[in-house]
């Protein structure tokens, strides 16, 4: 379940924790390396994004469902019979995400809003940020895939690793890129939803030191280049 706003904790625990644990145990019994998707959501609003327990402060049920398995991996890491890697993906965007609906990336959602209505809707001020100044680490799917394939080629490695660009960019900056691409449009700010207070991350930025220490040297395209490529695709 990829919905960060899902409130059915039973559904989240069954699908994100329980099923991942079943796959993990299957792999351990058969000595099969496993790479699974964790999430930057586990950091909540801690303000720190290194892969350490001190920075892990989930602020919604989805994030908890991800962190609980990360904790299980930590407990079992020194007794693994097969390598296991958890990749904490940040805000991934790019081709072939249409099936995600409301959980599709912000670049895709804003593109369709602008094309269909001539305007894009962003959150107003919240959590100490001015309207549209909330910031996220946007990472192109091709870069996320490159990291994943790198670990696939190194099946002796285990642990938790961030997958992000290492840069935090504002929603306003993203909107400006779309307006430039489309040759017009405007931004409309809407009140921050009351039901998301306390459950929302207004800022994310991957700490890539752990990934670099593991030996990954690949680059991550800046938002301007990645979004331009994606908009051409769309």
Order of helices and strands: HEHEEHEEEHEEHEHH
Span of the ends, CA to CA = 25 Å
How many helical elements?
7
Morphology call:
globular
The fraction of residues in strands falls at: 15-25%
Largest beta-sheet characterization: 3 strands, parallel
- SS-based structural class? alpha/beta
Mean pLDDT figure: 96
Record field, number of beta strands: 9
Q: Low-confidence segments, ≥5 residues, pLDDT <50?
A: none
List the helices and strands and how they pair.
Layout: H1 9-30, E1 34-39, H2 61-76, E2 84-89, E3 91-93, H3 106-117, E4 119-123, E5 135-136, E6 138-140, H4 141-152, E7 159-163, E8 169-170, H5 171-182, E9 186-190, H6 209-213, H7 223-233
Parallel strand pairs: 1-2, 2-7, 3-6, 4-9
Antiparallel strand pairs: 5-8
Structure, described:
The protein has 234 residues and is of the alpha/beta class. Helix content is 38%, strand content 16%. It has 7 helices and 9 strands, in the order H-E-H-E-E-H-E-E-E-H-E-E-H-E-H-H. It has helices at residues 9-30, 61-76, 106-117, 141-152, 171-182, 209-213, 223-233; strands at 34-39, 84-89, 91-93, 119-123, 135-136, 138-140, 159-163, 169-170, 186-190. It has a 3-stranded parallel beta sheet, sandwiched between helices. A two-stranded parallel ribbon has the order 3-6. The chain has a two-stranded parallel sheet with strand order 4-9. Strand 1 (34-39), helix 2 (61-76) and strand 2 (84-89) form a beta-alpha-beta unit. The chain is globular. It starts with 8 loop residues before the first helix and ends with a helix.
């Amino acid at each position: 379940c990829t919905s960060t706003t899902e409130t059915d904790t039973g559904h989240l625990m069954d699908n994100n924790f329980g099923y991942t644990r079943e796959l993990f145990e299957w792999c351990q019994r058969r000595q099969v390396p496993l790479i699974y998707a964790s999430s930057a959501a586990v950091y909540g609003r801690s303000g720190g994004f290194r892969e350490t327990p001190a920075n892990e402060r989930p602020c919604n049920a989805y994030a908890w469902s991800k962190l609980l398995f990360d904790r299980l991996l930590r407990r079992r890491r020194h007794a693994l019979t097969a390598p296991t890697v958890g990749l904490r993906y940040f805000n991934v965007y790019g081709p072939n995400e249409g099936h995600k609906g409301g959980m599709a990336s912000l670049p895709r959602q804003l593109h369709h809003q602008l094309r269909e209505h001539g305007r894009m809707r962003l959150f107003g001020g919240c959590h100490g940020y001015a309207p549209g100044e909330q910031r996220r680490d946007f990472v192109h799917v091709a870069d996320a895939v490159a990291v994943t394939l790198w670990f696939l080629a190194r099946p002796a490695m285990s642990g938790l690793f961030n997958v992000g660009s290492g840069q935090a960019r504002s929603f306003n900056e993203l909107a400006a890129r779309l307006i430039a691409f489309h040759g017009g449009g405007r931004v409309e700010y809407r009140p921050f939803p009351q039901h998301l207070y306390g459950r929302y991350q207004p800022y994310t930025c991957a700490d890539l030191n752990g990934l670099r220490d593991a030996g990954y040297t690949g680059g991550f395209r800046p938002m301007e280049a990645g979004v331009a490529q994606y908009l051409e695709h769309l």
